[in-house]
Design brief:
heterodimer; A: 116 residues; six-stranded mixed beta sheet; four-stranded antiparallel beta sheet; B: mainly beta; 11 strands; 51% strand; globular
């Protein structure tokens, strides 16, 4: 069975600083990988996804993530954080080839606080 | 993409009562998904709602507790029955766009507090 670990429950960074959120997965082959963001009082929004090909994927809002097979990781990065990035971030892993969203497993989330 | 509207956005309920959450999508979709997000926890899939057939429930969730309707391709409801404080959660409706990709669009969620 697949699983996702987000080791950091809460991260605090200053506005303008760089950010890296960690995500490790367990899956028998190359999975489908996602990062979602949940702003306060909102549903989840897809930031980016990795299906195949280039291991560095670009997403919305200036985020990127790098798939590292050797480390079973899919860390999310942003070079300069904005106050509006304060939110909860969820990593998710899906089966490859995809069946449906029933096969998605979400991590426990990382809460990001941005200091002025 | 898809725009999803959920009602109510939040509610406070008494133990033993039931509440129905509505989910409206701005386009026709085959499957709609209902998730639960307990305080400080990640998302857990409750069930998948297909139009014209019984919903498919995940392990640990049963139809008597979480009955689901799917009358057409743009609408679904989730009822939380005989609520207890343990049912206090955010309930999220979502749809998968673009086929079986795992790429989900979510509603804003319904935050339920059970006293």
């Amino acid at each position: 069975a697949q699983s996702v670990t987000q080791p950091d429950i809460h991260i605090t960074v200053s506005e303008g600083a760089s950010l890296e959120l960690r995500c490790n997965y367990s899956y028998g082959a190359t999975p489908y990988l996602f990062w979602y963001v949940q702003s306060p009082g909102q549903g989840l929004q897809l930031l980016l996804k990795y299906f195949s090909g280039d291991t560095l994927v670009q997403g919305i809002k200036g985020f990127e993530a790098e798939f590292k097979r050797s480390q079973s990781s899919f860390n999310l990065r942003k070079p300069s954080v904005h106050w509006s990035d304060a939110a909860e971030y969820f990593c998710a892993v899906g089966a490859n080839p995809p069946g449906s969203a029933r096969q998605l497993t979400f991590g426990s989330g990382t809460q990001l606080t941005v200091l002025p | 993409s898809a725009v999803i509207s959920q009602k109510p956005s939040r509610d406070i309920c008494q133990r033993g009562t039931s509440l129905t959450i509505q989910c409206q999508v701005d386009s026709q979709v085959t499957m709609m998904f209902w998730y639960r997000q307990q305080p400080g926890q990640s998302l857990t899939l409750i069930a998948t709602a297909n139009q014209g057939s019984e919903a498919t429930y995940e392990s640990g969730f049963v139809i008597d507790k979480f009955p689901i309707s799917r009358p057409n391709l743009t609408f679904s409801t989730l009822t939380v029955s005989n609520m207890s404080p343990e049912d206090s959660s955010i309930y999220l409706c979502s749809v998968e766009v673009g086929g079986n990709t795992g790429e989900l669009f979510f509603g804003e969620g319904s935050r339920l507090t059970v006293l």
